[in-house]
Automatic annotation (TrEMBL):
Keywords tagged on the record: Signal
Signal peptide per UniProt: 1-19
Domain Solute-binding protein family 3/N-terminal: 56-277
Subcellular location field: Cell envelope
PANTHER family xrefs: ARGININE-BINDING EXTRACELLULAR PROTEIN ARTP, MEMBRANE-BOUND LYTIC MUREIN TRANSGLYCOSYLASE F
Superkingdom assignment: Bacteria
PROSITE patterns noted in UniProt: PROKAR_LIPOPROTEIN, SBP_BACTERIAL_3
Protein name: Amino acid ABC transporter substrate-binding protein, PAAT family (TC 3.A.1.3.-)
InterPro entries: SBP_3_CS, Solute-binding_3/MltF_N
Name of a matching Pfam family: SBP_bac_3
Similarity field: Belongs to the bacterial solute-binding protein 3 family.
Amino acid sequence: MKKWGMLFIAVLMVTMVLAACGQEKNNSGNAANNTGQAANQNETQAAGDSTEPAKKLIVGMSADFPPYEFHIKNDQGEDEIVGFDVEIAKEIAKDLGTELEIKDMLFDSLLNELSSGRVDLVISGLSPKPERAEQIDMSKIYYTAEQAVVTREADKDKYSTMESLEGAKIGVQKSSIQEDMAKEIPNAKLTSLAKINDIIMQLTSNRVDAAILEGPVAKAFVKNVKGIVITDAKPETEDEGYVVGVKKGNKELLDQVNATLDRLMNDGSIDKFVTEATELAEK
Ligand code: ARG
């Protein structure tokens, strides 16, 4: 009996190893299932033969940016990157017939990752700043939103105009258009950080007076973090809207991205994605 038991376990182990190999090769599946850090994990049911590796679309984003791209614990208790940029990425991959891989990176590294070819696209609440067009190509604008100033509850009235921010300590994301905006404020002392979370922490721990963020991002943080508010100040920028970044010269991919964006804008999908992501971000 003991012998049979051992044999059974051995057979079981071999089967498991083989199954794991099959799963690894068999990754030509549904792009929509394949996002976030769980890339490749949902491919067990992928059909078809596995002789040719599926082409992959690698999308870089800085997932510190609810409701555009952010981490959640999904129903299976796993970490997942979600947001309306993620939904757009899935649609682009679907139209291209490729598998999607999301890479979470620091915002200030994204354009270099794109020009060096380590990612195929940047979808990261990226604004069409003219200087960026020298380094990368940009799609049409797929969404626009306003800018916002966030401060501690007690200072809401103190920083209710852009003029009132003169000389203040301001937190912004490194290499963002918000950093450009803050530089325009006379005598402002900038704290430029790689991640939005850290900017919020600087604010709640009194190390900066205010932060400039995209409006939807500001709303998401204000909902989730106690003691911070959006003020009446209205930061302005000429680089409004969001675009998808494509490697310079890759016209074919750029055209395909624009075609998907047209489809998603015309049938109302983008608005739907924004609404759903906003609900998720505020949960
Ligand atoms: N829209 C701003 C810019 O393009 C900020 C984008 C930040 N994106 C992010 N995922 N953290 O500069």
